[in-house]
């Protein structure tokens, strides 16, 4: 199949998942596709196995909080290391209940990335084999990379702001 990485990937997706693509563009020279969330695992598996795409390496999986939209995006970056082609896939979840199936059934390496995304954004990856905090303390009650939380502890008395130019 000919065309740019974006055109080729959209063509492959439309073979089986017509209507699932919400938006596609080259952003900063990176093909980026926004999809409906319901079939994301099936779509990624399809792109991994399809002979025209073979995105067989999961480079990145992370969360992005959009408080103005009351949503959390999950961003997946896939890479075909033989051709050098890459693609970024995004889905949006409601911030009140961010839940999506685990990608560990397709990429074992998603394990750590999903735990980190849970730890910092509160995204529940259903079916994950060990979804618990990985970097923050277990009894933490917030998800610190959500933008509704302040960057610093506002009640600390032991810090000297003059050392930081404040």
Automatic annotation (TrEMBL):
It is an enzyme of class 7 (translocase). Keywords: Cell membrane, Membrane, NAD, Quinone, Translocase, Transport. It is found in: Cell membrane. InterPro entries: NADH_DH_suC (IPR010218), NADH_quin_OxRdtase_su_C/D-like (IPR037232), NADH_UbQ_OxRdtase_30kDa_su (IPR001268), NADH_UbQ_OxRdtase_CS (IPR020396). The keyword ATP-binding does not apply. The keyword NAD applies. It is a peripheral membrane protein. GO terms for cellular component: plasma membrane. One of its GO terms (molecular function) is NADH dehydrogenase (quinone) (non-electrogenic) activity. It holds the Pfam family Complex1_30kDa. It catalyses: a quinone + NADH + 5 H(+)(in) = a quinol + NAD(+) + 4 H(+)(out). Transmembrane segments: none annotated. It comes from the Bacteria. Its main location: membrane. Its EC number is 7.1.1.-. Residues 33-154 form the NADH:ubiquinone oxidoreductase 30kDa subunit domain. NDH-1 is composed of 14 different subunits. Subunits NuoB, C, D, E, F, and G constitute the peripheral sector of the complex. NDH-1 shuttles electrons from NADH, via FMN and iron-sulfur (Fe-S) centers, to quinones in the respiratory chain. The immediate electron acceptor for the enzyme in this species is believed to be a menaquinone. Couples the redox reaction to proton translocation (for every two electrons transferred, four hydrogen ions are translocated across the cytoplasmic membrane), and thus conserves the redox energy in a proton gradient. Belongs to the complex I 30 kDa subunit family. HAMAP family: NDH1_NuoC (MF_01357). This is NADH-quinone oxidoreductase subunit C. The gene is nuoC.
């Amino acid at each position: 199949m000919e065309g740019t990485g974006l055109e080729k990937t959209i063509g492959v997706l439309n073979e089986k998942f017509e209507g699932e693509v919400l938006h596609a563009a080259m952003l900063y020279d990176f093909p980026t596709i926004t999809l409906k969330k319901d079939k994301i695992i099936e779509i990624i598996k399809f792109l991994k196995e399809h002979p025209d795409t073979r995105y067989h390496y999961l480079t990145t999986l992370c969360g992005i909080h959009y408080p103005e939209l009351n949503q959390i995006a999950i961003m997946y970056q896939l890479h075909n290391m033989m051709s050098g082609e890459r693609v970024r896939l995004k889905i949006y979840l409601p911030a009140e209940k961010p839940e999506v199936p685990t990608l560990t059934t397709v990429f074992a390496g998603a394990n750590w990335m999903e735990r980190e995304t849970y730890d910092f954004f509160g995204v529940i990856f259903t079916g994950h084999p060990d979804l618990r905090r990985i970097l923050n303390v277990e009894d933490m009650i917030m998800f610190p990379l959500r933008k509704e939380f302040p960057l610093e502890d506002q009640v600390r008395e032991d810090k000297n702001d003059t050392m930081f130019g404040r």
